[in-house]
């Protein structure tokens, strides 16, 4: 089966075509046939596609909306020009899988999209006003382009974290606010953390129940997850993706009183202050230069830039602190797993994060860390390290494709049920 995996953002679509079925899932032989993205939808869009093992295709073309962008993707995917074996017409795309950011408390597993499911996703717009509307536009565009005959499946960023106990997801605010408005921690990047837990157990040939690890997704957005017996028991993002560790442009944890104080001092509106915390903070705000970790590392090296170093150090400290707190939460862990653009590619940042964690049993092997090939998973801890350290490239698209296949085929798939610690 060929699954078109779509990740629709505010003005972009990323896609992959993934070949999967039950046999391929069991043998771990499913594969990406093509991938690409369109940015700046609504104006002169930047198109960048590539079929596996073939040269990239790039063009700048005006694309009015999501429907036009998806049309462009599909026309390329089925064209002889893309050269994707076994995909020559729209009938060769069997299922569409969507990344959906927020599933609230309602969606604890991936689901085939019906009118009722779409309404449920719309109900979650209040909780994710920046993300769910774009996901819904992607779903509607796919229904227009493919018609109702091609099933669509929603895979939620939040569902893996539905197993968090109340002690992890409740804020210390009046309980009726949770009851009335569902104000709680939801967590995001769930499909990435789930993939890392899955790949860790495959690499180590252990059953799911034995997966007791801390996963770190460090990209533009950053989140950590404490995983016990293969299930998420805590994660660093909260009601929105703003909470947690320092990120590219997001502040992570901040005393909320800062907002009131700043509104008095600078006369800023509430939406402006929230935008500042989401878009002008983190690595960008601290350095005053860029949110891009690679550029910060270059600035530090070439120009000895003090603010670049400061931003990197604050970032690494926030990740280190989170590792420590999750070791306490889990009562010890078997491994720490690095992933995301920074975690997968930067041996220097991995080293800076792990420095000082030796007393907790986390000992990095510098030679292994430096020698790890980009894009490959591997262990980078010293052989005697009590807590192992791994790098695992994430692959959310693979799990979205597998979930989509299973949901449409009526096969059992992972569901994430909440744990009750006690009756309120
Ligand atoms: P997103 O969260 O948007 O998917 P990515 O996972 O691609 O983003 O991560 C982007 C981040 O990864 C950027 O800060 C980028 O600088 C960083 N990054 C990518 N490659 C490297 C590298 N070789 N060294 C340091 N940082 C890197």
Molecular structure report:
It is built from 16 helices and 14 strands. The chain is α/β, with parallel strands linked by helices. The protein has an eight-stranded mixed beta sheet, sandwiched between helices. Strand 4 and strand 5 (57-62) form a beta hairpin. The longest helix is centred in the C-terminal third of the chain and has 25 residues, at 306-330. It is globular. The model has no long low-confidence stretch (mean pLDDT 95). Adenosine-5'-diphosphate is lined by residues 219-221, 248, 292-294, 297, 340-342, 345-346.
Key terms for this structure?
424 residues; 39% helix; 16 helices; binds adenosine-5'-diphosphate; alpha/beta; six-stranded mixed β-sheet; eight-stranded mixed β-sheet
Task: Outline the secondary-structure elements.
Blueprint: E1 2-8, E2 13-19, H1 22-27, E3 31-39, E4 44-51, E5 57-62, H2 66-78, E6 95-100, E7 111-112, H3 115-123, H4 132-146, E8 152-156, H5 166-169, H6 175-181, H7 190-204, E9 213-218, E10 222-228, E11 231-235, H8 257-266, H9 270-279, H10 282-287, H11 293-303, H12 306-330, E12 335-339, H13 340-345, H14 347-354, H15 366-371, E13 378-379, E14 388-391, H16 396-409
Parallel strand pairs: 1-6, 6-8, 9-12, 12-14
Antiparallel strand pairs: 1-2, 2-3, 3-4, 4-5, 7-8, 9-10, 10-11, 13-14
Helix pairs in contact: 2-4, 7-16, 11-12, 12-14
This protein binds adenosine-5'-diphosphate (ADP).
The site of adenosine-5'-diphosphate (ADP) has 13 residues, from helix 11 and helix 13.
